[in-house]
Target: non-specific serine/threonine protein kinase
Amino acid sequence: MPPLLLPMTLLVLVVVILLLASAAVAALVVRRRRQFAEEEEDWEVEYGPHRIRYKDLHGATNGFRDLIGAGGFGRVYHGVLPRSGAEVAVKVISHGSRQGLQEFVSEIVSMSRLRHRNLVQLLHYCRRRGELLLVYDYMPNGSLDQHLFGHPSSELSWEHRAKIVRGVAAGLLYLHEGWEQVVVHRDIKSGNVLLDADMNGKLSDFGLARLYDHGGDPQTTRVVGTLGYIAPEMSKTGKATTSSDVFAFGAFLLEVACGRRPVVFSNNDSEDSPPSPGLVELVLGHWKAGKITEARDPRMGKCDEDDLELVLKLGLLCSHPDPLRRPGMRQVVQILEGAAPAPETSPEDLGDSMTLFEHSEAFDRFVGVSFPSTSGFTTATMRTSTSNSPDEKRQLLFS
Model:
């Protein structure tokens, strides 16, 4: 090779190498941008302050490695926000419908304005490739159902249980009456109650919640929720109301006091056979026998028998199959706080119809439709064909 061509050849090689290196770097940059690419549309502008970059969440969760929960709703990861150092829980939800996602984001971000000590606070959200990422305050003691059913060594005292149910009742009263709109949660259960470091109960998971104006009429929608907590009238009306939330709260009260699920399907139950006796029937049976406190969870040790009896009877009243006979959450909170007298009722007053699945053929069919649950318990959904408006007048048993 002539001496003059050698430098030229080296120059060409250097240029080629630089071009290849640049192309490789560009490919890596594009790949990384795609990895952290987010979706944002015009309708999300008003929610800007609540958005957080996917890249920041990826770093906060150490690449989504610290999985702390999973279920039909998606996955939940523990994370630490880099700027504030705050511990958070990041819920990742897949969503295929663009319109449905828009409505979901609108509803969720609206609820981020809710402020109450017994509600888990939504901090941020992010949207990426059909996934919605919701960032909440981290609750170090997990969900209540883990303590009731998941940890054999966990023995919640009556003091803790009473504190938790009072807190959840206060949070639910705020949703129903204390905000600018009525918020119907639609999925109250122990799996959706999270516990902070001081064992305060906080109502969470507003993915099914619905809003409507005070004095307005709730819209007919799908019947959703968890079997055992769903008010029987919803199979006819399809409307989630504050009264249907009260029904679920009644089941929750019994669940916490008794340490049992509202409904348990045994392996021997066939599709055609009725379910095993539910928690309402069990507690009502103890009451008729004059020993209602024997329905209690035997693991919780000593407790105030009068307080326990009050909670059990209040749970039955809230779970009444007739929505007109249920109290509102204001009355419930007043009774739990000792600011109002307990209702003077008897098993006969509540009647022999305290059965969750006997009120309509539609509800019987509804039992057979199930979907994944956030806590491993059966979640159900169906569409209703009627939209009759229930009478909002309450006939309370308080005097």
About this structure: The first strand starts at residue 67 and ends at 71. Residues 355-399 have pLDDT under 50 and may be disordered. The chain has twelve helices and eleven strands.
